[in-house]
Structure formats: C-alpha cells, structure tokens
Amino acid sequence: MRIYRIKEWWYYLGFVLLGALAGKTSLKDFLISALSAFFIGCFSFSFNEFADKNLPFQFLKYPLIALGLALITLFFLPPLKKFLVTFLLILGFFYSFPLFPLKKIPFLGTLINGVGFPLLILLGSGRKEVLYLCLTFFFLCLTAQLIHEYTHQSEDEERGIISTAVKLGEKGKNFLFLLLLPPLYFSFYISFISPAFVFVMFLTLFNFRRKDFIFLRRIYRMENFIFGIYLLQYYMICSFKRM
Question: Distance (Å, rounded) from C-alpha 217 to C-alpha 146?
C-alpha cells in the first residue's frame, strides 16, 4: 500500500461505484471497471513516486506491474471503457514523465487533476448519460486542486515550482471563490436533508475569507466526501425502487 500510495486515493474508487449506480451497470461490469480503476491508480501514483523522488530504476517494476494488470482488464471491457482506461493510463504517464512532466506546466497540471478523477464516473457507467455528473465533479476536483496549490503556494515558490496558484497569485483567489460557488450551492441544497451542511457551508466561506487554506482544504474535502455519499445513497435508493 505504501508503494502504490493507496491511502491517498482509494476513496476515488467511489466514483466508479457512483457511475455504476447512475448508469444501471451490472455487478460484473462494475467489478471489472473498479479493478481497472484500481490498477490505474496504482500505476499513476507509483510512477509519480518514481519520478518525483528520483528512485532507483529497479523501483520502476512496481508501476509496470500495475500497468500490465490494467492492460489485462482491457480484454473484458467494452470499446468506450477500453478508450477511457487507455486514455487515463497515458494521462498518468505523461503527468509525471520525468523529462517533460505535464504537472509542472501551470494550468495544464491543474486541469489534468480536475479531469482525471471524474472520468472514473464514466468508466463505472459506460453511458454518456452520466456526463453531467462528470462535469459536476470536474468543478469540485478542480477547485480542490487549486485549494491544494494555494495551501502549498509559499513552499512551491521557495522550490521554484510555478504552479497555477503561484502563476495567478493573489488575484487568482477571487477566481477560486467563483469556483467555490457551485459546491456551496450543493451544500445549501443538501442542507434541507442534513442541517450539518449549513455548518460546513459557512465554515467554507469563513475560512476562504480568512485565507486559511490549510483548514479550508480539510473542510472542502469533508464537504465533497459527504456530497459523494449523499449521491451514492440517492442512486442506491433509485436502484431499489426499480427492482
């Protein structure tokens, strides 16, 4: 688990489950898709570890094992999912590729983080009808990535890393606030079911005003996590009603 950094991304597999429930996917198709997503995560994060820390060449066997297992799942997937798995593997490779890592290009690296994870919803479903869910979580993940970058802005500046947050500077925080509005709207909507969301919503606004990005990052992560749980419960109930 340490080599593949599973603790850092395991919850994103919930996107595959969300897509499967929203797209009325069979259990067999869901399990294969989830397996593909798991190996994609193992490959992408272990390859990123290899590239970031300049690890010995022998370490490369771990990303290659995960890559091979992900490619094996292609034989059991329909054409659209084959394309998605291939695309995500290529994205994970070039995101960390040592000679020319896309993650070090301002805006592009941030955009990749916003796009990559929501595509797991489409991988879980295989139906174009869930694109609205992908778009919703694209904004959520993009905002989360920007909050992450602003949290580490001073460190990146010291290390000479030009992230999107470093590039935008103080003016970019107003843009970030606009991106916060959709998830705040979701929080308000769900607050009719769970009053705790009102508290989370005001915490988000308050900490943004304070520019306390470390705490904002924790609150925003919790908010998105609960929003995802809410959607999973909603689609589960819909599935039971159809039975």
Answer: 10
